[in-house]
Amino acid sequence: MSGIKARVAEPEASTTSHSDATAEERRLNLLRQIAVAGGSISPQPEPYAGHGYAYVVQGDDIERDLAILAQRNYVEERFFDRVTLCPKCDSHHLNVREICPGCRGAHLTKEGLLHHFRCGYVGIPSEFSPAADGSYVCPKCNSQMHHLGIEFDRLGRSFLCRGCGIISDNPPVEAICLACGGRTPAGDLISTEVFTYVLTSRGAAAIRRGSFLDDKEELVDVADAPVYRRTVILEFLEHEMKRLQHFNVVFSLLLARCAPADIDHVGDAASVEWLNRLRDCLRDVDLLGQLADALYVVILPQTKRRQAEALRQRVAAGLGPQSPFTLYTVEITGRRDLAQALVGLDPRGAPR
Question: How far apart are CA 100 and CA 108, in angstroms?
């Protein structure tokens, strides 16, 4: 019976594996397209797309795959635009306009206002009857108004409802959905963000390898803390250098040095705890790697010296006074800066 069960279950396992492999290959191909496009892709206006924007790349489930790649740090999300949506059907096809506070109709016109100083009456020009000499007659007190600025004045514009005649200075704003017909006050509309996606060092490494990075190969065994091995973090550094050269995007390094006696070897309980704490103090886009036995480096993308120093202070405060790490930052503006940051270290990770 056990042999029959194994034979029956085998196609199901194979199908699942094939599905996973297909999704991974599709996402890897998406990374390649981003690289060919210059390292980033931005959404393009498309009225028939779900939220009014679409990415001009080939493949299925593009937006979902981009979100997954961003979660796995193969691409970086950068804000592009905010799209207002109908809360009932999620459509972006909205007609937003002022409406009458009385009848809720949209047949409004902008009218100038006249203010009669003598009696204080304020109304639209059509309420003031014109006199033969070109003056106005006030509808309230029937006095003639001859001189602008002396007897009357022109005020700002108001909205006149052609349906019911109500005049309002600040009529409510409402959206009607052209997809479902729902009417929603402007304050109750929802929105979603769309992003530009930029290839990261991790994404570039996956393209060069022709496959997504294997956690067992790229990570030091430190519980859930992503601490990249020396070969991998150096690849990431090289990619950051290329981004610097092509896009003039400055980045910084946060170096964490500790005495070998404080963290004997990666994998013991103390090192796991401290490295996890260090990782928790960093941003999602920062990459933590091991350069030497007692030296760790954090790549801080698009971070200048002042921002890096502020982050260093925040990390130091988060680790506390018992931290085994000595932290210092280096701004990288060219290959010479990177070479000095790396060559200025002895094999044990201490400055020469």
Answer: 7
